[in-house]
Hints:
The complex is a heterodimer of chains A (249) and B (300).
Chain A: E1 8-19, E2 22-33, E3 37-42, H1 48-56, E4 70-72, H2 84-91, H3 104-116, H4 132-145, E5 150-153, H5 162-176, E6 183-187, H6 191-197, E7 200-204, E8 210-214, H7 221-227, H8 233-248
Parallel strand pairs in A: 3-6, 3-7, 4-5, 5-6
Antiparallel strand pairs in A: 1-2, 7-8
Chain B: H1 2-10, H2 15-49, H3 62-76, H4 83-111, H5 115-138, H6 142-152, H7 161-180, H8 182-188, H9 192-197, H10 202-224, H11 230-242, H12 247-271, H13 278-296
Amino acid sequence: MENITGNTLLEVRGMTIGHEGKIFYRGVSFDVREGDCIMLCGANGSGKTTLLRAIAGMKARSGKGSNGIVMIPSRIPKVKGFTLRDFVRISCYSQSDLGGRLAPEDEAAIGNALSRLCLDNLAGRDISTLSDGEFQKAAIASALVRRAPVILLDEPTAFLDAENRIAVMGTLKEICGMPGRPAVIFSTHDLAEGLAVCGKVLALGADGIFRCACEDGKPDEMQKAVAGIFKNPDAFIRQASIQGEENLK
Amino acid sequence: MTFLLMAIDLYYVSPADRNVLMLLRLPRTVTAMLAGAALSLAGLQMQSIFRNPIADPHIMGISSGASLGAAAVTLCAASSIGSRFHEISVAAAAFIGAGAGAAVIMAASKKVRSAATLLIFGVMLGFMANAIVAALQFSTDAESLKIFYSWSAGSFSFVTWPQIIIMAAAICTGCAAALVNMKGLDILLFGDEFAAAAGADPRHIRLLAMFSCCLCTGAVTAFCGPIGFAGIVAPHIAKWAMGSSSHRSTIAGAMLCGSIICLGADLLSQMSGTPLPVSGTMAFIGIPLILYILLKKPEL
């Protein structure tokens, strides 16, 4: 019951997630297809970042010209003295020469990515003067420039205000439909906003069970999977259904 | 320009004056410039790899390690090593001492996440090295001790041309390492995880940067003594003046700034009747600027 429109980029089967000798989840299995927008949720310390790092170490079955899976960590420092364009250029570490210069086609790709994410008017601004949301978008742009088939984002909306959170979530949804159809996996605590944009959910349950659900599964399956991360799942479903009814009104 | 004027002057002065210029003034000026460039290059790289605005070889204990190495050779082994090899062996010992200090700091940086705690660790490491040097002083003769004291106060004077050549060679190698490492130093500013995700190897970048720091610090400390503060201040002035933190521009900028600061400190030290130690005049120039940096960046 998965999204059949895109090719499978990653097949995870029976993965075990653990940290420093402690096992969190066994039998983690899911697929990542082209253009998937996947939300990863779980309580603090449940192993979201560990799972993302594990995926970052995998190899995607991607087409020509791409550069493997790219992970964008949370809380990248906004170092003063670099323009937004410099920042994207620096992130193309493997493509640039010793002096950090890029080939003309890569420079053009930066221009393209920035204009797609509506960042072109900020390209010359010092990154320390950008809002956290704008900077997060710049980090996403850097993944696009590297033609990543799968983009992993560790809590991209943490520490953002409501407006920036919505903007970044919107960007995530948007890039899944861009040429090359990259898949996006993002971890977040903003469940309602995440559910609104994602087509698949990976949930690290409070009961020690890993759940994967997608939009075209049974109705409410994604919500149920998300509820699994709470010690009291029913309360979340009740809350969500009340909100849903309010939205219908 | 200054050098051009000096060169012209050389043809119009008496042999005695020429000697003063060639044997005293010119070596001192060149030494001050080289030392400033080297310490600033080391400071810039340390600030980048530790992401700490007031890191430099002096405060992080690398200079103290170098001092310990140089002191061990000067105080203990001076008689057993022929004078021909004295310079190079002092430089090598200083480099090894700096390397030992750097290794301890690198090991500590894996455990210590806080920039401020790592700084304190470096300061403590420096105290430890100084304590060993103090112990060495007790077991040495008066003549060595006199040489040692004038060296440990820091000075750009009495550096000979062969020593300058050793310094210049070490600094050129250190500078080449920094230039090769340029884009790695840039990306490390955005965090290890971001750097690794972009295909860089943070460990490799750090090791190369520390190698360069040790070469620069070791060379300067061996012949000029432990000199602080220029390495902290110069990179900040360079970043501010150039409006960029990209190492493509800050490496050259910081080295130039460091040279100017050390020339200034040397000038200041020679202004009074009896020459003052450079470490003292450097503190007068450097510390107010460092305090200003700290006030601007309270979230260290």
